[in-house]
Amino acid sequence: MRWGSLRTQLTILSFAVTLVGILAVLFYVTPQLQSSLRDQKLRALGETARAFTPQIERLVRDNGSDEQMDNLVSSVSDRTNARVTLVGVSDGPEGLRLAVFSDSDTDNAINDLELTVADAAARTGRTSVGTGASRLGELAQVAVPIRDDGTLSRVAVFSAPMADVQGNVALIRRQILIAGALGLLLALAGGFLVSRSIARRVRVLERGADQVASGDFTAVFPTGKHDELGQLARALDDMQRQLAQLESARRRFIATASHELRTPIFSIGGFLELLEDEELDDATRRQFVATVREQVERLGKLATDLLDLSRLEAGSLELRREETDLGALTRVVSAEFAPALDKHGSTLELRLAADRIEAVCDPERVAQVLRILIDNALTHTPTGTGVVVSAARHNGCVRLAVSDDGPGISDAAAERVFEPFFTSDDAQGSGLGLAIARELAERMEGSLEVDPAQGRTTFSLELPA
Ligand SMILES: Nc1ncnc2c1ncn2[C@@H]1O[C@H](COP(=O)(O)OP(=O)(O)O)[C@@H](O)[C@H]1O
Ligand SMILES: [Mg+2]
């Protein structure tokens, strides 16, 4: 048994809660019960005394004989189930003196009865309620003064044992203790069982998480239950699925990247072999060298793109943040494409908002995104396609857009153009351009979206202004 384990803690907790409950009942509720039972007893005795005293009073006034008085007292005692004592009161030189006149309880020595309550009644002239002691234990007592011709001559004392109250309370306390002991056993057993099942479920989750951590994505998480552990299991299951997807994306990425790197290298190797042939004429040799240079350039670009993308994904690419005039930037970048436009037989139209468009961003990286977009608008469209580059404020953001009136992108392809290595035509590209552009946009807290409408394919970069 480990003290720090969930199971032990939960078991002890349920035991402790039950114990506190039982102690609270014992030490808080039982005393209250006892005092309310005592009050009830005294009240009932008071009512009895008020109901039966008039009979005694009448006999006192009528000067009944001692025997008549003894008979009345014992018959009242029989009917009320209380010990009835008639006490005579006389005014002596040392104050009031009380003497027992008649007592219903003949088995008991009369001087055993405490007369404190009777004394109080005689002194105040009012009914007095209290407790006294006797050999039978504590007594509830009610003393009613009796007047004869206006002078207080007697006090009728009704006494009933409190023993039954104490007995009842003791019985209840005993029962609480027995029920409490049973409750504690149940709490221990219940706490143990519940916490054992919780601990078991936690252990299953832990084992699953370990399995996922070691790269095995086939762990089974019990997701059936709808409590917090069920939720945790579902969260872990989701995590496992996402990790599996990431892992397979990573594998795919590495496989494609190696393939993309290998193709130009093999091609270069092949041409180098051909170049070793000494009988090659000059023109062919020059053509082969040009092809090799092209492949080397492609390889170089691919290596740069891969490095950019991996830096972006690892979050290690440092971005500058500076106030940038995006209108000017768009103009400069567009101007770079003059030779390419010429070769493609295309025109580039610049649509810039009249006022300055400024944003805090990394100008180098925004230019890189623009280059990728304009380059695509030229490489993936037929010759003569018109390109429009615009910069404007839009919904509190800055929006740079590159659109062309080429044949557009199919909806299926549009969903995937931002994936690394995705290419949908045979233009010689590695498919990393848009992936890099989107990562850059997101790193600058902006977004890059495509609207693949036919005849007007638009890529728009939005940046916070
Ligand atoms: N303006 C465009 N018109 C048509 N297709 C486009 C356009 N821009 C991008 N695409 C498609 O998206 C794919 C991915 O583009 P990109 O990531 O830049 O890779 P690459 O240009 O190296 O092929 C392209 O292969 C092309 O099929
Ligand atoms: Mg491209």
Using the coordinates shown, work out and report the CATH topology of the largest domain.
Beta-Lactamase
CATH superfamily of the largest domain, by name, is: PAS domain
- Which parts are unreliable, with pLDDT below 50 for 5 consecutive residues or more? none
Note the total helix count: 11
Number of domains: 3
Please give the alpha-carbon distance between the first and last residues.
Answer: 62 Å
CATH class label of the largest domain: Alpha Beta
Order of helices and strands: HHEEHEEEHHHEHHEEHEEHHEE
Sequence of strands across the biggest β-sheet = 2-1-5-4-3
The main β sheet shows up as: 5 strands, antiparallel
Structural class: alpha+beta
Describe this structure in words.
With 465 residues, the protein is α+β, with helices and mostly antiparallel strands. It folds into three domains: 6-167, Beta-Lactamase (2-Layer Sandwich); 228-314, Signal transduction histidine kinase, dimerisation/phosphotransfer (DHp) domain (Helix Hairpins), CATH 1.10.287; 322-464, Histidine kinase-like ATPase, C-terminal domain (Heat Shock Protein 90, 2-Layer Sandwich), CATH 3.30.565. Helix content is 56%, strand content 20%. It contains eleven helices and twelve strands. It has helices at 6-61, 66-80, 116-124, 163-213, 228-275, 282-314, 326-336, 338-344, 363-379, 411-414, 433-443; strands spanning 83-92, 95-103, 128-134, 137-148, 151-161, 322-325, 348-352, 358-361, 387-394, 397-404, 447-451, 457-464. The strands form three sheets. A five-stranded antiparallel sheet has the order 2-1-5-4-3, sandwiched between helices. A five-stranded mixed sheet has the order 7-9-10-12-11. The longest helix is centred in the first third of the chain and has 56 residues, at 6-61. It is rod-shaped, with a radius of gyration of 52 Å. The chain starts with 5 loop residues before the first helix and ends with a strand. The mean pLDDT is 90. It binds adenosine-5'-diphosphate and magnesium ion. Residues 372, 375-376, 429, 433 line the site of magnesium ion.
